[in-house]
Task: structure prediction
Amino acid sequence: MDPDRPKQSYAISRFNTHQCIKVQRERLAFMKLGKQARMDVDAVAQHWDAGPESCNVSDI
Result:
C-alpha cells in the first residue's frame, strides 16, 4: 500500500469540503437576496435591452 495515499486523499477531501462550504455560503447569500437579486437582473436586462432570445438562462 502506498504510504502517501491517505495523506493525499485527506488533502483532497479537505479541499473539496472547503469548496463545498464556499459554494453553500454563496448559495445561501444569494437565497437571502432572493427577490432583490432578481430585480437587479431584470434591471440589467432592461438596461442592455436584451430580448428573451439573447438571454439563455440555461447557460448560466
Summary: The chain has a mean pLDDT of 65. The CA atoms of residues 4 and 10 lie 10 Å apart.
